[in-house]
Amino acid sequence: MSGLRISAAHSVEGAAKEDVEKLSKYIFQRNDCSEKKCTSENQGTFAGFMTLCGGDAPTDEHRVSVDDSECSICLSTYDDGDELRELPCGHLFHCPCIDKWLYMSATCPLCKRNIFGASSCCGGV
Ligand SMILES: [Zn+2]
Ligand SMILES: [Zn+2]
Questions:
Q1: How far apart are CA 11 and CA 3, in angstroms?
Q2: Which ligand has its closest atom nearest to the C-alpha of 72?
């Protein structure tokens, strides 16, 4: 009756909560060199650390470079204690930001890679 037709062209499926929660989660900590202590020589290379969250893995720290220290969804920089999510493609976002995104579309907002890997078109099984 109505002329409105929902196009199936963009039917990218969102991820389920349990799928999102399988992705690695980290806690971000700022590089605690204060402005006074460290010269830009020491400090310039990375913005902080992120520590793998949950599980019984030993503390696993990764440096976060200045370039990667901003969430591309809300465009703010990570702060002490922020929860970050790493996608299989290696991109980082705030947990709450990317979770919301993934429920709508299970792809990385930056590189458009599907979080389930290559085979996603036919779903199945
Ligand atoms: Zn964010
Ligand atoms: Zn990506």
A1: 20
A2: 1
